[in-house]
Specification:
Length: about 190
């Protein structure tokens, strides 16, 4: 049997460790960054709803204009975007709702994966109400369980994004950033 040169063996082992370190270094750095609390690109534009709520478990009832109850769990996995109108929904409120409907259209082929639910008194103008019926399902919170999310400022809207299993994900309070909401929707609707 041929004798192995100890210097060559040490050099080979160092080379192997160097290769392993090259592959392990990014994972170690990512682990350290995650452990320190920094995670890139995970912050949404809405406020997380804490403690977490599941509207199915809470038996939150939304009565629609046609008298039926809103099904939180749909026949296919679809998210729900709930618009909660403040008092006297008028021009600014309607403009926000129109922007949300346009954002849904910008989801292109995934727009069917998002349902739009409007809770509250619809705009008084009959033309605006008719336009809303094109994109929004109108209803009301039967027991007022969403009252904490309803804005108090007149002519404003807040929004709650709800997972297909009924879990509330994020709150976008009145005056939220519309493009930020769209970015969040694109992240969760795939």
């Amino acid at each position: 049997m041929k004798e192995v040169d100890p210097a060559a063996l040490r050099k080979s082992r160092r080379f192997l460790l160097l290769i392993a370190l090259v592959f392990a270094a990014p994972m170690i750095v990512a682990g350290l960054l995650s452990w320190s609390g920094w995670q890139p690109g995970t912050k949404g534009n809405g406020e997380p709803i804490l403690p977490q709520r599941n509207f199915v478990d809470e038996k939150l009832q939304v009565r629609l204009d046609d008298g039926t109850l809103w099904p939180w769990r749909d026949s296919e996995p679809r998210l729900t975007l709930i618009a909660l109108a403040g008092p006297d929904c008028a021009a600014r409120c309607f403009e926000t709702l129109t922007g949300i409907a346009k954002a849904r259209l910008m989801l292109n082929r995934n727009q069917s994966r998002l349902r739009l639910l409007y809770l509250g008194a619809p705009p008084v103008d009959p033309g605006r109400r008719a336009a809303m019926n094109t994109y929004w399902t109108l209803g009301r919170d039967v027991e007022g369980k969403l009252a904490a999310y309803v804005p108090t400022t007149p002519d404003t809207v807040s929004v709650v994004l709800v997972e297909s299993n009924g879990t509330a994900l994020s709150l976008y309070p009145a005056g939220f950033d519309g493009p930020g909401l769209l970015r969040d929707m694109v992240k969760v609707i795939k």
